[in-house]
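ok so dumb question maybe but i'm new to this and my supervisor (M.) told me to 'just get the structure for DUF3945 domain-containing protein' and walked off. so i did the thing. is this what she meant?? sequence i used:
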Amino acid sequence: MSEETTNKQEMPEQLSDILLVLDKEKMKIQAVKSIDENGKMETVDPTKKNQNQFMRVDKSGDFFSNFFSNFFSQLKNPTNFTFFKVPASVAAEKAEELQKHVDKPTPQGEKVLKEHEVKAEPQPDKKQENQNNMATAQTTTETSEYRYKPEQIDWDTMKNLGLSKEYLEKRNLLDPLLRGYKTNELLPIGINLGGSILRTDARLSLQQAEDGNVIVAIHGIKREPNLHFEFFGHKFTDEDKKNLLETGNMGRVVNLVNSKTGDLMPSIISIDRLTNDVVALRTEFIKIPDEIKGVKLNDEQKQTLMEGKPLYLEGMISSKGTEFSATVQFNADKRYVEFLFDRSNNNQQAQTNQQNTQQSNQQSQPQEAPRTFRGKELDDEQYNKFKAGQTIYVELKDKKDQPYKGYITFDKDTGKTNFEFPGQYKARVEPAETHKTQTAVNSEGKTNEATKNVQEPLKSGQQRPKNEKQQEQQDNKPAKSKGRKM
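this is what came out, is it supposed to look like this??
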């Protein structure tokens, strides 16, 4: 550090602030001690015993802003750290408080961290690569920060893939790329292999190589998620696999291992439903909204979503103004809270079918009916009817092991399994059957056992004699004479 900074470390406590830092890989709060000429930061435990080693900074607004901007620009790997400013007199106590919020994230704790967080302000006459990187590391889909610029993209490579800037802009796909995300849909690309050209569908993203250049990453479609091997040190349990295949989200926080440093990274895991990639997101980047479709979330509900767990919400209002209920869950790939409507074990295959159907250069193929639906294996009789397209009755259990019943039908064209609760099924089928009976008797000359002797046309929905006269006709009894006795 400069001589000016060294002198500032000797300021009285009431006129100075302490700079605390959170190493995002170690998830540990430390006090900043110094920074060397190579941009490596020295830290110490934020205890009262070490307070004479803390870097002290003039708490004057303008001076602090200038100091921190200079400090940040000298720092090596700035995106690995989050900084906090606290009064020197209570630095140790504040550090302990912040560490508790880091160890056990809560919506309230997130507010406390934000209150003390320090961010580098943009300098108009300097390059902003480091600042942009730090902002992007903490960005969500709601922010307006961009990680890359259009001129950083290798457009020659894009051209070789059959893509152009104009095409991406027209499809509204350039914006998510510049924000550091994957394209939100599959793109048809062609890869020249010399003697042949490979054509496939894939999602694209931009990544920064070690030399600083921005490269195009291609995320091709996999047949199924690779859950049989360890993922950054995490071995998937049977429950993990079941959750990921059924909902696309694992439903819990696990410690992943940084392959370079060996440090633990608390993260949630989801499946990219377009490509079947396994995707992780560190918990520090999870942002939970205060309200979902008109329902305000309390702290307990927010904490459930922060932990990657599913949450059932009632009384939400759709864009059409109708009330509905659904399960919601934070998705690591999408980086927001998504709705989980009816899904089956055939979810991944069905989605792949849908993607193939949407591609104009591909033809849809008949799909094989799944033998298992929501964990329920069909017996031979059920399965034969099911794969033939017939509707079958099934008894199932939800995630809380509570039983429920319904009807399922397999659509060969889309590969989807349609589910209906008994009430929905009867409301759809019974009126149709009633109308069929009426038409058959009145128009086609067919008979219904319950009304075959009735001589009058049946009314809408009628399947039985409607009065005493029709009942007598049905029973073959002669009608009563109304003449006078002689």
